[in-house]
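=== Given protein ===
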Amino acid sequence: MEVWGGCALPDDVLYDLEADVWVRLEGSAATIGMTDVAQTRMGRLVQLSWKEPGKRVARGRPLSVLESAKWVGPMVSPLSGTIIANNRSVFEEDIAAANRDPYGTGWIYRIEVENRAEIDLLAVGATAVNHYRNIIDSENIRCYRCVD
């Protein structure tokens, strides 16, 4: 895993660079969450809307609305498919789960991937790392984790 400006950039995930979300493939399912850079830009999460399992989502369309003290906006789906799980129970216990552990307990959705060709639109490896290094440097971002 690369760390740049304190921001974790795991190499075991794919990235939708435009949406600022990560994807971890597990067979035909994909776990999705916000990147470390995204959670830092947003600040401490205070509210999150949820779609329920069974709901179909399309690539590029909103999955949730995220709200922090300084930002409100959509979390966009990196892939088309059907939601098979959300992480609502973890966020009900700790709304800052994505701020504390964006690539682990802070995952947000799991979807059954409908169109595997969309996976090729996601970035991996050096392409993703270089993209985030440039953003971190140009915006002078220093990632942090929320603590109690």
Observations:
- Residues 5 and 136 are 7 Å apart (CA to CA).
- The mean pLDDT is 94.
